[in-house]
Amino acid sequence: MYKIIKRDGNAKRAEFQTVHGTIQTPVFMNVATVAAIKGGVSTEDLEGIGTQVVLSNTYHLHLRPGDDLIYRMGGLHRFMSCNRPILTDSGGFQVFSLAKTRKIREEGVYFHSHIDGHKLFMGPEESMRIQSHLGSTIAMAFDECPSANAEHDYVKMSVDRTTRWLKRCQDEMKRLNSIEYTVNRSQLLFGINQGAIFDDIRIEHAKRISDMDLDGYAVGGLAVGESHEEMYHVLEEVVPYLPLEKPTYLMGVGTPANILEAVERGVDFFDCVYPSRNGRHGHLYTNRGHINIMNARYEMDDVPIEEGCQCPACRRYSKAYIRHLLKAGEMLGMRLCVLHNLYFYNHMMEEIRRAIEDGKFASYKRSKLDSMQEFDNNTSAEYRAIDKNWRKG
Amino acid sequence: MYKIIKRDGNAKRAEFQTVHGTIQTPVFMNVATVAAIKGGVSTEDLEGIGTQVVLSNTYHLHLRPGDDLIYRMGGLHRFMSCNRPILTDSGGFQVFSLAKTRKIREEGVYFHSHIDGHKLFMGPEESMRIQSHLGSTIAMAFDECPSANAEHDYVKMSVDRTTRWLKRCQDEMKRLNSIEYTVNRSQLLFGINQGAIFDDIRIEHAKRISDMDLDGYAVGGLAVGESHEEMYHVLEEVVPYLPLEKPTYLMGVGTPANILEAVERGVDFFDCVYPSRNGRHGHLYTNRGHINIMNARYEMDDVPIEEGCQCPACRRYSKAYIRHLLKAGEMLGMRLCVLHNLYFYNHMMEEIRRAIEDGKFASYKRSKLDSMQEFDNNTSAEYRAIDKNWRKG
Lengths: 393, 393
Hints:
Number of helices of chain A: 15
CATH architecture of the largest domain in chain A: Alpha-Beta Barrel
Oligomer: homodimer
């Protein structure tokens, strides 16, 4: 079901067949946390900006509206009227980052809802059941994501437990997929490599999970506080130990530069809230770098965010209009900015796929990075603001 | 340029040709206060919900982003990428209702901006110049809108001044349309009948302005606190004195029932913030009455807001999904509700036009009103909430 079409160095150009359609990789998944992309973006909109895969958050949907409700409505695809592949995360990352007063035990995690504080428990089986209720195309294994500053001993202990949890996820997913009333009985399961920035733990873990014949493999626990260089180093160490014949997913990453570097190191799935979150603040991506559309210099700017761009914002509206909408607090302004940024990411992935097919990824990457640095309107303050947003998740 | 196709009782089915396209009347104009419909609705969206005419607010655009900026961007049509007729109000109503510490003089109105408090002046010539900058299809005359409780003497004095202002508007519009650099040199001007609820003042004013050969005539100063019955009475008294061969516009009105009653009395243009504002709060129109989608009974409701409705919300999404989006604070929820409500209004106008063409308006009106009263989910509290919103403007 995963077929490499072309390799260019370590970069992979592949096709991944799922019950909801074939995914062309490398791919950027567009984040729809609570079954909708923030910023008023509809399912029709997604179809107009080249979205291949939607990512939704298990923890959020479990709390509101409840996975049980979505199950009764026929699953997430039917609920949000989406006929493309959907990946759901495990809920683990949010349990560890959003929920209050959590206690980690062998069976799973005890915590309090960040919405109303009520007591909850989530372990591998619960995560699989929730994701099975949602009926996503790809479910993610329930794992612990240790912080970038965690000690070697703690990380070792945590990763061992994550491996035991992975086996339980796999068993539970098999059981759920065998039940007649399951929404999507072909639900796939990806395992997640952890180990913070410790090469030895990461590599040993990668070897162990590679033996488990999962449908894909993610590298998790990155973009949580380590430097970009540390992230790239981990990828160089770990990706060679993950199965080449399975998709590789770098979770929660990242900037266009991060994606280019990771593709070069063999990654083919990405997701990040960066384009939609920055879009809502008027921070926009162009092929010449970031712009902040609130800047006074765009007040009378009668041209689109990026000339020649085929996104719904650039095909029709000027920077002056979009800036006016944001200043007046009109939602349409946010929506147009989010559409532009997601289109930018999705379109960049298309360029990446073509560059790999043509055996020209290295030169494509170099020219893309160069052009994005050229932009003379970038101030380092704007860059920092964007990077800070990105760090938050 | 205004041609009656069919009359059915006093109801008129007409075509109004403008430089931006032909308007089929009776028509409901969709309100885009600051050059965008609130709720993340784009120009493309408007095209998908049967919008014929957009209404934008002169006062708001004058303050932000400034009519000067919009003029430099090529006018409102180009600025908001809209190729349909746009009507702009005069700014008068907002000067009287929103602005602080206003002083009315023969020359115009002195007031303070409701945004930053700075001193401003607007008179007939200023209003025409701003609307000429915007380049709307139809400009409205600058008038005073006396409150429903104003005394006879005050209203008489005010309406006399409004008539003098109308002459100044007409002269200034003629001058502006003769200038080579004017955005839309075919800009039309509608006069506005005032007189609160005093028949004698209303009728005398209607006669006087009818002699002035304007492009259309509005009835203003209604839906500002008087009862529905008083409103209908004013229409019955006044409309017969307005030229039959010109369009008649009832400003700021109203509920579906108001519109049906007014069409029966010869009105063919309408506008109201009611559908978009109620939509943003999850109050939705259906052919069986209002529903409040936040109501718990819709939590697991797997069918659209209205079955068979061809709006972008009903074609694709269930009540359960839209309710979830609103509860989660997702903008998409608001956007879908606004699209549904505007479609409902635009579609009702289409039904009205067909009914008049078929000579069946009276029976159409009766069955429409009956069906909307049938709806068993309406609570009078919901009705009151909606009506209160409507009163606010």
